[in-house]
């Protein structure tokens, strides 16, 4: 046995012995790690807890020292007060309509384009794909002024279509779904073509069902992106009836500068739907982010 | 001559691509070209547009408000980027220890990422309330007199940085954790056998093999920091006294409050050029520190 190998085997056995000999030390390290992670988790959760807690406090309890996490007395009245002056339900409905249509449209248009780029052969395909990728880099701030002018010319400022139309296609979705379709085996498609199937049939019957996980991940992203989007709705919507939740909330805050219990009631209501989506679909969301790095 | 099959092919391609190509052309590519054209015009949406050559660009570059906004954006990046990266890395390393309950922790840390900016900004504005906020109360318990946070020009940007890092930590963590989990276990075992200590293993295995994920996170985070807007609009609206005014906020104000469409468009192209430039530099520099495979 050479000296290096000997040293290695000694190191190996002493390493094994060490971990066997000091279970207490390892236990302590583990405990310390858990304590840190739990502390970090509390830092992440506390602001949400404080938001909910504040939303149930009567006015005079807002500014007491020491602040109480559990509201006493506990009152749901703030929700009613907010609902009296601000159509929160309407905001939520608007957000829901816009996000649902925008996400479904994006899934459909992106999946079709993705199929085109992954499975069809036509002249200029790769150049066109580069154009799609190029649009990914353009920030909204660059296009927002002409987009607003365009909506004005079309007479769409302050309408649902103004919120929805600019978001019915997604270069990012096309890119993400193209990757998913490229990873599918071609044998199934070819068998179907031999049986006389058209591209549309192959797309509908084979490719779409097989890319369901990618479609789900992308659909959730698209929904969340729309649900949380702020700048464009802020610019293009002015009447209260058409406002989405983020814009409505921002106005609510403008109105009730210091009535934090009312503002937090609005904030609490507005996170419920997105939290529900997240609770159901978090695996898809996190896996999707890890794979593609898109922000929710 | 294009044969019948050629036409067929073209028709099929059109069928699949038109539904995304038409909206992209109308609502992204078109406006992008128009924005470039607009940046050479003076236009308030009411009177007819008038070409002004490069006047918008030279105007923006000489505008003291723009200089201040650039400085604030740079301050934001300098505070936010290290905070969110190091924080995300520490959490990812902690979660990469084959722990029980990993999925629960991961979901909790990720929660702020799915929450809208407006909600996060409002909640933090309340947490960081100078007089009755819970953060200053907790600080007072340990004998610290908390600052005026978003009401104090010196503390407005740090408040925004704090809220932003809190919101994006989970995003950075998820990407880095995926990167960590892709590092083969036997690298560590081999290094341990060779007598490498924890720190040495971290420096010579973890950091280099994590570098592609780090690179990705830094590129995305930097692009997003250049475009910081929502949280500022809600928390400070650029104030107090313009202390947290940033580039995108300037674009929005010039376009939609002052009606200077061309000026705003020019500013947006300067921002885009800066983002593109910095991203290209990052790609150039990646050979120096990013190890693939």
Describe the structure.
The complex is a heterodimer of chains A (296) and B (293). Chain A is an all-alpha fold. Chain A has helices spanning 3-21, 23-55, 77-85, 88-119, 125-136, 140-153, 160-164, 171-182, 187-194, 199-210, 212-228, 231-236, 245-255, 260-292. Chain B folds into two domains: 4-38, no CATH class; 55-289, MetI-like fold. The two termini of chain B are 48 Å apart. Chain B has helices at 4-38, 55-62, 64-95, 102-114, 117-127, 134-141, 153-181, 185-193, 198-226, 230-235, 247-256, 261-289, and strands at residues 41-42, 50-51. Chain B has 293 residues and is an all-alpha fold. The interface between A and B is large, with 97 and 92 residues.
Would you spell out the secondary-structure blueprint of this structure?
The complex is a heterodimer of chains A (296) and B (293).
Chain A (H helix, E strand, L loop, with lengths): L2 H19 L1 H33 L21 H9 L2 H32 L5 H12 L3 H14 L6 H5 L6 H12 L4 H8 L4 H12 L1 H17 L2 H6 L8 H11 L4 H33 L4
Helix pairs in contact in A: 2-14, 3-14, 4-8, 4-11, 5-8, 8-11, 9-10, 11-14, 13-14
Chain B lengths: L3 H35 L2 E2 L7 E2 L3 H8 L1 H32 L6 H13 L2 H11 L6 H8 L11 H29 L3 H9 L4 H29 L3 H6 L11 H10 L4 H29 L4
Antiparallel strand pairs in B: 1-2
């Amino acid at each position: 046995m050479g000296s290096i190998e000997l040293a290695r085997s000694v190191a190996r056995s002493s390493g094994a012995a060490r971990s066997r000999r000091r279970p207490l030390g390892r236990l302590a390290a583990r405990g310390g790690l858990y304590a840190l992670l739990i502390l970090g988790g509390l830092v992440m959760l506390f602001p949400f807890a404080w938001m909910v807690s504040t939303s149930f406090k009567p006015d005079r309890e807002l500014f007491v020292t020491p602040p109480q996490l559990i509201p006493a007395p506990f009152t749901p009245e703030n929700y009613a007060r907010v609902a009296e002056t601000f159509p929160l339900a309407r905001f939520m409905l608007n957000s829901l309509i816009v996000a649902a249509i925008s996400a479904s449209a994006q899934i459909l248009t992106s999946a079709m384009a993705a199929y085109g780029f992954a499975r069809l052969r036509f002249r200029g395909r790769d150049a066109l794909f580069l154009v799609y990728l190029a649009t990914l880099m353009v920030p909204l701030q660059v296009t927002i002024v002409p987009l607003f002018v365009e909506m004005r010319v079309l007479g769409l400022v302050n309408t649902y279509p103004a919120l929805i139309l600019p978001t019915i296609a997604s270069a990012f979705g096309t890119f993400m779904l193209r990757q998913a379709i490229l990873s599918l085996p071609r044998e199934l498609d070819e068998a179907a073509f031999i049986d006389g199937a058209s591209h549309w049939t192959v797309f509908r019957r084979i490719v779409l069902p097989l890319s369901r996980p990618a479609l789900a991940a992308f659909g959730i992203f698209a929904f969340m992106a729309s649900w949380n989007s702020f700048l464009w709705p802020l610019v293009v919507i002015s009447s209260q009836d058409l406002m989405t939740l983020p814009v409505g909330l921002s106005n609510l805050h403008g109105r009730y500068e210091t009535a934090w219990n009312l503002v937090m009631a609005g904030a609490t209501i507005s996170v419920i739907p997105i939290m529900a989506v997240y609770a159901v679909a978090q695996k898809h969301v996190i896996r999707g982010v890890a794979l593609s790095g898109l922000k929710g | 001559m294009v044969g019948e099959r050629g036409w067929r092919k073209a028709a099929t391609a059109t069928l699949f691509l038109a539904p995304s190509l038409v909206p992209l052309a109308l609502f992204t590519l078109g406006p992008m070209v128009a924005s470039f054209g607009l940046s050479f015009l003076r236009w308030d949406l009411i009177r007819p547009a008038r070409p002004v050559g490069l006047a918008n660009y030279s105007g923006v570059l000489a505008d003291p408000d723009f200089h201040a906004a650039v400085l604030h954006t740079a301050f934001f990046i300098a505070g936010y980027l290290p905070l969110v990266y190091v924080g995300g890395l520490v959490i990812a390393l902690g979660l990469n220890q084959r722990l029980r309950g990993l999925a629960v922790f991961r979901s909790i840390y990720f929660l702020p990422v799915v929450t809208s900016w407006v909600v996060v900004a409002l909640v933090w504005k309340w947490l960081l309330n100078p007089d009755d906020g819970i953060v200053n109360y907790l600080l007072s318990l340990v004998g610290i007199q908390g600052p005026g946070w978003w009401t104090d020009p010196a503390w407005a940007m740090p408040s925004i940085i704090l809220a932003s890092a809190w919101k994006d930590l989970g995003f950075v963590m998820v990407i880095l954790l995926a990167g960590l989990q892709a590092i083969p276990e036997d690298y560590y075992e081999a290094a341990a056998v060779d007598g490498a200590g924890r720190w040495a293993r971290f420096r010579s295995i973890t950091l280099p093999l994590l570098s592609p994920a780090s690179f990705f996170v830094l590129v995305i985070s930097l692009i997003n920091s250049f475009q910081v807007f929502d949280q500022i609009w809600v928390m400070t609206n650029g104030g107090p006294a313009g202390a947290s005014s940033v580039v995108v906020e300037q674009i929005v104000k010039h376009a939609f409050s002052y009606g200077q469409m061309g000026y705003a468009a020019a500013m947006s192209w300067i921002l885009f050029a800066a983002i593109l430039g910095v991203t290209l530099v990052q790609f150039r520099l990646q050979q120096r520190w990013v190890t693939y495979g």
